[in-house]
Amino acid sequence: MKEELEKNILKILKVYTKDYPQELKKGIFYAIAKGKRIRPLIFLSLLKNKRINISKKEVMKIALAIELIHNFSLVHDDLPAIDNDDYRRGRLTCHKVFGEGNAILIGDALFSLAFKILADVKIKDGLKIDILKILSKATTDLVVGEFLDINKKITTKKEYLEIAKRKTGALFRAVYEIAALLLGLPLKKRKEYAFYGENYGILFQIEDDIEDKFPLPFLLELKNSLTRQLANKLIINDDK
């Protein structure tokens, strides 16, 4: 599945960036290279072998938009003014290769491309608007979460969860929400998908912070608690 996704990412991006300045285009492809594609792969797996009223090509556009939003956040996150990281995915970060100003614009380009591609998705207008709303909200939450992260010293579980929910949980929530929408699920079920996606994203952030030895004593407790909650949610869903 990942190989097919990679081929489609490159194919679609080449079309949408054909008129871009060469250096900007180079930066865009550099920024998205070597990613794990966790979010779009989850999205595709949720739709795999399901009947939906949208072609595979259009599904790939949505998957790409999700990945572009994720990568825009990483490019900006790595900047000297925020995390000041020199390496990402085993190689130099965008601002180290292309310069700080260009890296900001590369991130901006990834963000704008995501919504340009979404606007071109061939799907019923009502569904398209719903998808745009979901991803707009997720992106807003992501930015707010990042803002809180760099401006607020985390000392409590509540503060940590508020930031993790926005910074990481929001885009995972969007992945599950959009999949549920395309599957034509009823509102109650879509809310369950959103709940699972958001909390899976929070768990993803917790595990990342534990691996990075983030100095908060309650992370392991939070991880275990959230893992149990998600397991119970899966059991509930399986029983229906």
Briefly say what this structure is.
The chain contains ten helices and two strands.
Q: How is this structure best described in words?
A:
It is a single chain. The chain has 240 residues and is mostly helical. The chain folds into 2 domains: 1-122, Farnesyl Diphosphate Synthase; 124-240, Orthogonal Bundle (Farnesyl Diphosphate Synthase). It contains 10 helices and 2 strands. Helix 2 packs across helix 6. The radius of gyration is 18 Å and the shape is globular.
Outline the biggest β-sheet.
2 strands, antiparallel
Helix content: over 70%
Write down the overall geometry.
Answer: globular
Total DSSP E strands: 2
Q: Give Rg in angstroms.
A: 18 Å
* Overall number of structural domains: 2
Secondary-structure-derived class: mainly alpha
Give me the number of helical elements: 10
The residue ranges in which pLDDT falls below 50 over 5 or more consecutive positions are 235-240
- Classified by CATH, the class of the largest domain is Mainly Alpha
Q: Estimate the strand proportion.
A: under 5%
Overall mean pLDDT = 93
User: Element order, helices and strands?
Assistant: HHHHEEHHHHHH
End-to-end C-alpha gap = 29 Å
What is the CATH architecture assignment of the largest domain?
Orthogonal Bundle
Let me know the CATH homologous superfamily of the largest domain: Farnesyl Diphosphate Synthase
- The CATH topology of the largest domain is given as Farnesyl Diphosphate Synthase
Strand order of the largest sheet: 1-2
